[in-house]
Amino acid sequence: YAKAREFRLLQACLARDPVLWKELYTEYMEAGDFHRATMCLKRMAATEKKYSIFRQLQLDRADLLIGLEEPQQAITVYSDLWKRSQHKDFEVFAHMTSLFFQTGRFDKLQKLITNAKEMMDTENSAEKKAKEEEKSGKKKKAKKEGDGKEDEKKEADDDDDDEQDEMEKLLNDDEDNSFRKRTRKDSGKKRKFNAKNYLTVVNVECELHIEKGHFEKAISATYEATKVLKIPMEEMHPDVLVRFAVAHIMSGDVEKA
């Protein structure tokens, strides 16, 4: 039976048949041959066009690689997913940070945190700008409507054709403004700042600083988070507050913990 499976494996390699790869994956998992199972997942992912399925196949593959004590290969899989998500898949981020802690790769973890924070700072700035533009747009529209009313009073004696032309122009302007507003709204959705994800990054950052003995940096990172989120310290997420207290205790400042 094992030889027959090896023949089918060769057949799958030549045919690039995802159905056959799936069958082989199931058989290898049942037989406990996890190395071959990871190869099947890799091949299945390579032929998958739908990203959600591709992502799940890669997550399953990384999970198997971790079980096989091959964390570096798992990190490579997660890194690819992180890049494909444009640095927005924080489930993948959590898996990566866990592996970096386990393997002691603090330099890589710091780069990942910096990368995530830079991306989120950009999102936060973009969201603020979008809100300012929307507010400015409303003021301009109100001013334009006011000017339009004044124009109507001044042009009350104009003939019907002129009034019709003016009305069409106003309608077209309203449609243009509506389109621009929808565009800004859609754009804002794509780059919306996510406070939960930001807290995930801050929590990992504080944990890293504490692990490295940089207690003051952990404290500073927490204060910075309160400014970004515009909340008082007592409303900060419990996990971050715990690390904030630990950093104070480890730095010898028990009273502030």
What does this structure look like?
Helix content is 82%, strand content 0%. The relative contact order is 0.06. About 8% of the residues have low confidence. The chain contains eleven helices and no strands. It has 257 residues and is an all-alpha fold.
Which radius of gyration do the C-alpha atoms yield?
A: 28 Å
Beta-strand content estimate: under 5%
What general outline do the C-alpha atoms trace? Answer: flat
Helix proportion: over 70%
- Backbone structural class: mainly alpha
List the helices and strands and how they pair.
Layout: H1 2-15, H2 18-31, H3 34-47, H4 51-67, H5 71-84, H6 90-103, H7 106-154, H8 160-190, H9 195-211, H10 215-229, H11 238-250
State the gist of this model.
With 257 residues, this protein is mainly alpha-helical. The chain has eleven helices and no strands.
Describe this protein with a few key phrases.
mainly alpha, 11 helices, 0% strand, 257 residues
